[in-house]
Amino acid sequence: MGWFTKTKESIVPTNLWTKCQKCEDAIYNKDLEKSLHVCPKCGYHFRLSVSARIGMLVDEGSWNEIDGHLRTADPLQFKALTSYSERVERAVDKSQALEAITTGLGNIDGRPAAIGVFNFAFMGGSMGSVVGEKIVRLVDRAIEESRPVLVVSCSGGARMDEGVLSLMQMVKTSQAFSRLSDVRLPFLSVLTDPTTGGVTASFSMLGDVVMAEPGALIGFAGPRVIEQTIKETLPEGFQRSEFLLATGVIDMIVRRSDLKATLCRLLDFFLPARAVKAISSEIPETADADAGAALTL
Amino acid sequence: MKELPFEHHLLELEKKIDELKSLSKAHFIDLSQEIQTLTAKLEKSKAETYSNLTAWQTAQLARHPRRPLTLDYIAALTEDFLELHGGRQWPDDHSIVGGLARFQGEPVVVVGHQKGRDTKENIHRNFGMPHPEGYRKALRLMKLAEKFDRPILSFIDTPGAYPGMEAEERGQAEAIARNILEMSRIRVPIVVIVIGEGGSGGAVAIGAGDAVLMLEHAIYSVISPEGCASILWKDASKAEEAARALKLTARDLLDLQVIDEMITEPLGGAHRDPKTTSGDVSDAIGRHLERLRAMTSDELLRLRYDKYRRMGVYTEKVNGE
Ligand SMILES: [Zn+2]
What ipTM, to 2 d.p.? Predict the structure, then answer.
């Protein structure tokens, strides 16, 4: 750390090094890339760009983005300090993306999947109409092609600028995953730092397996809101992945270097399902294990 | 009696009329002329005030301390209410109530958020802000309704799901998500009535039904005006502006096609005439139940799916544009 501080001025402009946000160690960028953006010293998981995430999970040449043509509208003509359309424009500039999720079809070590990756750089990965629509179309496509769904979440929750329409995306997306479940296609949900609000309170907690990267902030309410409500400081590690594992909220913590292999193991376990049916308006009586719950009332 | 700033002059007028009335009674003097004039003035003033409410004033009415609450509606609308407390989770959550009842003679299951009337009640009810076990209790009751083929009435009135440590530890997000998913496959009609505050995910968790009705002065929003103001304006005192921007009134939601019907309130709001209000709510629920009951379960589920599938506004750009 001392070394980094001393040489900071001469090092930073060359963009060869990145400082770890946790241990403050300086990491050579080439090394960081090799380690999938995980600090080699302390294991801190840096936030990953969408392209890097797709690059690490999806087989080269197999990625096909879908629904990239969906664009944000401004149904409320929303204006706070700046207007929503200005905020969107700025987000597009900043993130070099058109919305807060990228969806597509690709193979994970040869296993075809339907994949969605949130982009935190675009308005905090917030879910508005476009994100909701893209997720539903992804699930529809998965059902059509009998693919499992993987969503890597990274989101502050519902997007305020689209008001109650953002809120309704929670219903719209969750019910789509209910259909996926009805045809027994697996949904693997990966939560990364941070995932909170309307995204955790809808589809991202509904995975057949819900896993998180180490040290990720995951919760319904943000820590600041909780602190303001209870007028106490939250203990260290509250709402982090390790805490969620301990409270039974998530199934497992997966290090980034193990993620692809873990996903493959899970997919191999679940697929092919015993009876994958084509989509129908009829909800099968024994859609999944949950359906049996009514009998235990 | 608690009042809102814009109610003040109306309450003054009402007080004056009452004084004149008792004066005239006590002293056997005829003040009918004066009373009539003041009453006319009051009605005119009321009409002006309540037909031009701002979004922020509506939010205040939605949270009015005297506004009828879920248990008031259950008492007024149903007979034979039998409260069931068991969410089979620890502990019982008093901010969600529910049970069996008869609505217009037919057995139904009711659930709803319950706020308190005063500080003591509000502490007991946690200000109508549920923990996960509250949502799980509501889900258990909804599944019970499904098992015995009874429709569900769900009353929405919450500032939001409780943002506390225990709530997080017990999986607040998962509880809300699970309810939304399960509601999308419950095979009996679900009629939702937003009676006061529809606070974000905490409201949706028991709000994803076939018909969503909303009282005229209720609000329904992705975030409270105060919360939105402190995040986007960096200033909580801009709540009034945030309320307007969020489009959270019943009329807004009707325009956005998020609700199916707005139930008009008596002049001055539900709390000024709870009897008329509950009568109108009862009529509206009855109408929608009749419509929904005529459907098969498959139809019901398909239409429920389509209803939410359509929500959202975006554009599709063709290549080269
Ligand atoms: Zn480090």
Answer: 0.94
